Amino acid sequence: MSDAEPEVSPRQADEKWHAYPDTILEFESRPPLRVDLRENVADDARMRLGSLGLAMPFGVFTAENPAGDNAEDEPSPGAEERKERANDRREGRLEHELRERGVAYVRVDGVSPDGRYREHCVATLVTREAAVALARRYRQLALFWYDGSAFWLLPALADEQPQRLPRNE
Question: Which DSSP string corresponds to the chain?
């Protein structure tokens, strides 16, 4: 199977799904805007999202690491580098597709709490259905959806139910 279409193992999908709610979103802005999905969205973050053009519901998704098949998990530095280059190409295709469609987007990184893992994403004002469809087309297990007051974890390829964040609510 090509690197564009890795298999999704149920164990891997489950492991990745349970890690998503611990994500910190770092929106490209000055000063940087960090939204910790382990906490409720603060009023000042909500206002900052609006200043970035993200006042209405929007999706956050990536084209990197299809099916949760992370480059960092590769057995050798060479294999990891090849997968990173493929991630860069997929990210470029996603951004090109959005520009071609006339869909505005803001770059945002999904970052692990310890900062050791980072995925380049986009936040874009598309319908929830369109966001899920794009995430599926780029073979993503899940995506984040902001409904105007809270973030949600939505399945794309994962066989899960939508989950309101933070998960302790």
Answer: --TTS----HHHHHHHHHHGGG-EEEES-SS-EEEETTSPPPHHHHHHHHHTT--S-EEEEESSSGGG--GGG-SSHHHHHHHHHHHHHHHHHHHHHHHHHT--EEEEEEE-TTSS-EEEEEEE---HHHHHHHHHHTT-SEEEEE-SS-EEEEESSS----EESSTT-
- pTM of the prediction? 0.88
Encoded tokens for 74: 């590769």
Judge whether residue 13 has pLDDT over 80.
no
For tokens 């980072």, what's the residue?
118
Residue closest to 108 by CA, chosen among 73, 144, 83: 144
**Residue 101 burial class via C-beta count within 10 angstroms: exposed 0-12, middle 13-18, buried 19 and up:** exposed
Q: What is the C-alpha separation between 24 and 9, in angstroms, rounded?
A: 25
Burial of 62 (0-12, 13-18, 19+ CB in 10 A): buried
For 67-82, what is each residue's pLDDT tens digit? 877 656 656 778 778 8
Q: What is the pLDDT of residue 1?
A: 32
| Phi, psi (deg, nearest 5) at residue 26 | -110, 105
